[in-house]
Design goal:
Distance between the termini: 29 Å
Order of helices and strands: HEEEEEEEEEEEEEEEEEEEEEEEEEH
Protein name: Jg20723 protein
Bound molecules: 2-acetamido-2-deoxy-beta-D-glucopyranose
Organism: Pararge aegeria aegeria
Radius of gyration: 20 Å
Keywords: Signal
Structural class: mainly beta
Strand content: over 45%
InterPro entries: WD40/YVTN_repeat-like_dom_sf (IPR015943)
Shape: globular
């Protein structure tokens, strides 16, 4: 009985707008926006993370995997109309850990075990731009083009500002798991499954909420929201103090998220990158 009643209500809701019921289906909803998966890219057995779009619609990301040689981290690229991910020539194999996009200078950088590389759009090859002995695990760039790296010191992951080839230690960022900086220079980070923000106008970090974390994850920003892909996908408005909201319907454990210029995005989960595009069909337009 209950099922029939529900079906009846559901069809009523859509038929009220003279639309077929299927048009109201959606793969994923964030606030009032509906998205459908429009493309799927294979990443083999590897887990994607640290995904970033450049201004031209290229998607760069890191894949983490294991094979008979042990662990590897490689950078991959999906060009705008491409159906598959490709390698970025020039980067050290197995030890390219991180991607960062400098929006101000429209440049893409790669953090590796052998220094920082930059992407050359003409040759489509990455070339070394620092001394090769800069040790890092991840690389980030703030709105002013300053570069930051994380690396281990005294057994803990720490944050450093790069000034040429010099590293300036940032205090208060011990034992980081993931860190990202937004376009207002607020630093967001995960430490021991807790999510914090260090705002540009405050001297101490503020706890936002609990997140699960298992070695791979990504913090990213879109409009005024901060997203955390770390097993589940959650988000919070930048002015909010909590709790974080959980996105339902994600495909398994997510480890990467990146938005493109039009507000569509990708999610990374083991073995694949999924592209989500806004689903602006009539059913939703009329309901909203
Ligand atoms: C979105 O996907 C669902 C199935 O997952 C489908 O029924 C629906 O028609 C799609 N909507 C659009 C606008 O593509
Ligand atoms: C990708 O395809 C779309 C539609 O087919 C086209 O308008 C666009 O110019 C293409 N982009 C690139 C970079 O080739
Ligand atoms: C810091 O900035 C945030 C967001 O812009 C604001 O909500 C907060 O009131 C500011 N705090 C102080 C101490 O100025
Ligand atoms: C976060 O988790 C801790 C336990 O680890 C719990 O005591 C605390 O209430 C949680 N906080 C929130 C905001 O969920
Ligand atoms: C968030 O805070 C900023 C700075 O305080 C303010 O300009 C903006 O309007 C706020 N946004 C919302 C949605 O409250
Ligand atoms: C997500 O990860 C947990 C372990 O961390 C695992 O038990 C679970 O099966 C994973 N879920 C999927 C859908 O892969």
């Amino acid at each position: 009985m209950r099922i029939i009643l529900l079906l009846f209500l559901f069809t009523q809701k859509c038929f009220a707008f003279d639309l077929p019921r299927s048009a109201c289906k959606t793969d994923l909803t964030i606030d009032k926006d509906h998205y459908n998966v429009t493309k799927t890219y294979d990443t083999g057995d590897a887990e994607p993370t640290d995904a970033h779009y450049d201004g031209k619609g290229n998607l760069f990301f890191v894949v983490f995997g294991r094979n008979f040689n042990g662990y590897y981290y490689d950078v991959k690229l999906i060009k705008p109309n491409s159906t598959a991910a490709q390698n970025v020539p020039g980067l050290p194999e197995r030890e390219s850990y991180s991607v960062a996009v400098d929006k101000k200078e429209s440049r893409v950088y790669f953090g590796t075990s052998k220094g920082i590389y930059a992407y050359n759009y003409e040759t489509q090859v990455a070339t070394l731009i620092t001394k090769p002995d800069i040790n890092l695990n991840s690389l980030l760039v703030d709105k002013d083009g300053n570069k930051y790296i994380t690396g281990r010191r005294e057994g803990f992951e720490q944050l450093y500002l790069l000034a040429g080839n010099e590293k300036i230690h940032f205090k208060g960022f011990d034992a980081l798991d993931e860190v990202a900086v937004d376009d207002k220079n607020n630093f967001y980070y995960i430490r021991e499954e807790k999510f914090f923000v260090l705002r540009n106008n405050l001297s101490h970090a503020v706890f936002i909420g609990n997140v699960s974390y298992e070695g791979l994850g990504q913090i990213t920003f879109h409009e005024e929201n901060v997203f955390v892909a770390s097993k589940s996908l959650s988000y919070i408005h930048e002015n909010d103090t909590g709790p974080m909201k959980r996105v339902k319907g994600t495909p398994g454990n997510v480890t990467a998220i990146a938005f493109d210029r039009s507000g569509n995005f990708v999610l990374g989960t083991k073995g694949k990158i999924l592209k989500y595009e806004t689903n602006d069909n009539e059913c939703f337009q009329k309901q909203n």
